[in-house]
Amino acid sequence: MTNRIGIVIDFQIYFYLFEPIINRLINNKASITIYCPEKYFDFCLKLFDNSKYIELKSLDAVKDKHRIRFVLHRILMLLLTRDDFSFQWKKKRYETTKKYSGIQGLLLRFSRYFPHVSNAKINRVLKSIVGFCFRNPFENDVILVGSLNASSHLLCANGITVYTVMESWDHSVKDPNGYVSDCVFCWNKSLATDWILKQYDQNVVPFFPLKLRYALTEVREQRVTAVSNNKLVKRIVYAIGSTDRFSTPTFCKFERQIIKDLAEFTKQVGFEFYLKPRPNGYDGEFDYLKNEYPHVQIGKLKNTNATQAADYFYSDDDNKLRFENVIDAFLVVNSITTFGVDSCVAGIPVLQLDLRKAKGYELAPLVQNNYHLDKYLLQSDNVVRVEGETLLDYLLRWEMKDLLCAASKYSYEIEQQFVPQYSLEDAVQTLCEAVRREC
Predict the structure, then answer these.
(1) Is residue 364 a contact partner of residue 356, using CB atoms and an 8 Å limit?
(2) How many CB atoms lie within 10 A of CB 105?
(3) pLDDT value of position 305
(4) Could you point out which of 63, 323, 394, 412 has its C-alpha 20 to 30 Å from the C-alpha of 223?
């Protein structure tokens, strides 16, 4: 085996996660092997300026050699995981929000009656069975990988030291990882605790929310400037979390009702209404709104050719465009997206909606009862809880200054949860030093 550090990247979104880590390793003159799909080779070389410290290997080729273990891993996970592993997992097993066809659908239905493994043991059982007589398929003893990756069957092999880096805040509570991590780097202490309680890895440390780094730095500074210079405009922003391309029909129907109510509300109060689409949506998905609501603006999309939900990349320049109409907005309205957290840590007021008891939103519990949403976004006293009436009627009863006050207080609360205890530079350096000691 080589003393090079291996990094496994299944989808393009993980390049943004690992970009500061790889750049720091390059600055430290560490040799790196990146395993990724061959279609990303040119992109990767350009992103890291053809660094001599980077060697590219085909992840496709590695997976092709171990296709049987992938199938075994997938079947065992579907059969053995308990219903109560997570709210999301139970919805999947019972096809509450989406129907599955073919072999996957048959396995999900059969799994309802199959003996299950305890939540505390599921990842270790999968590693033991899938990893039986399985030698390290990589050329590296030390592997870095993002959370909720698509290579968990490979990470069950023997002879690998696995470091998992949290990509998104909900990844610890959706599905079993399907492998055992030697060390996990989470966004903060609370999410590290969630990881231990759900995934049962024991060496879990608070790190830095890499996904939020642009909001924590650039956007935050620009927001302060906009407020100081009295440059805010009468604009309300809604970050869309669903798209017909990848989301369940339940989720899409739920969000389109929110968008309709917000479009009518902003029309009546004389505000611009800016929709920030999901990054991997498609052009024209929400153009139908413009016929009835000319004041609606729809953000531009960059990743309309994505074939998988995580198959996109935002550079800092892309993030600049993504926040262009948000920095000087009056407030952001959020229902379920991470963008609400982005906005909070950037100092932008966020009006967080809880629609689980709202009139006309009977689908809301299927979406908003997800563990991470309920625990981190919906517990504040400053959440907009609509009960027994429509969202539109509720909002029209409030003065805009009162909505702004609630949004500002809420944003500050969430900011305190997610602002990291370490600087980006210190956190990345600590991770790199820990990984290099293993090589």
Answers:
(1) yes
(2) 12
(3) 65
(4) 394
Of 16, 403, 373, the closest CA to residue 169 belongs to 373
How is residue 321 written in tokens? Answer: 């465009």
Which of these, 184, 183, 180, lies nearest to 157 by C-alpha position? 180
Query: CA-CA distance, 268 to 76, in Å (whole number)?
Result: 53
pLDDT, tens digit (0-9, with 9 covering 90-100), for 149-168: 999 999 999 999 999 999 99
Could you tell me the pTM of the whole model? 0.93
Q: Do the Cβ atoms of 24 and 424 come closer than 8 Å? A: no
Q: Look up residue 124 and give its two tokens.
A: 């270790």
Q: Count CB atoms within 10 A of the CB of residue 386.
A: 23
Q: What is the pLDDT of residues 274-330, one digit of tens each?
A: 999 887 778 888 888 988 999 999 988 766 566 666 677 888 888 888 898 999 999
Strand partners, 205: 185
Domains with residue ranges and CATH for the chain: 5-209+422-438 (3.40.50), 212-418 (3.40.50.2000)
pLDDT grade for 258, boundaries at 50, 70 and 90: very high
Phi (first) and psi of residue 348, to 5 degrees: -95, 130
Evaluate if residue 429 carries a pLDDT over 60.
yes
Q: Distances in Å between the alpha carbon of 27 and those of 5, 210, 241, 436?
A: 14, 19, 36, 13
pLDDT of residue 321: 82
Determine the average pLDDT of the residues in 40-69.
97
What tokens appear for 109 in the block? 């239905």
Query: Taken in order 396, 397, 401, 404, is the CA torsion positive or negative?
Result: negative
